[in-house]
Amino acid sequence: MRLRKIMILILFSIIYSIGCITQPITFASSTSHSSYKINRYSKPIPIEQLKIGGVGIGDSLDYVKSIYGEPSIVGKKVKNYLYEGITYDVSYGDSFLLKVLIESDGTENIVNINSTANNGLAMPCGIKVGSPIGDMYKKFGMPWRTNFKKDGTYSYAYRTDYTTKILFTTNKDHLITRIDIIGME
Hints:
The protein is α+β, with helices and mostly antiparallel strands. Helix content is about 20%, strand content about 35%. It contains 3 helices and 13 strands. The protein is globular, with a radius of gyration of 20 Å.
């Protein structure tokens, strides 16, 4: 009798697992105003595409300054437990923000990048804030994770072969309003 119960549980687990593999997972919470979908079969974005305006994760702040000059705003240095070090934000104008990590050897490297306006800064493939969402789909396919908010905005997360992620946010008109390249998640 016990063996029969174990076999039924195993069979149920297999059937459930097959169902989970073939269907995207949707998470919705009654307390949340959003829903999530995960696409396990999304292709990773190539690492060479993870730049905005020629700046990528791991680039030194000195390299960024050689392109754009001194930042318009330099934020306060704070302990960042995620990156296990001291970080601070720098911005160029009001729409290009970089998070800088001070490494143990004193070098300052970029760990997060975001663009929040159609400031002319684009990814190597040409996608930028203001691009239609169709450009994202054409270039990168289906996202790894999608978040829909009740206000009509969407966020689309793509993964890479590394810990870096990229997040596109769109408005109700299906235009990209924000691009975030996140060094860690």
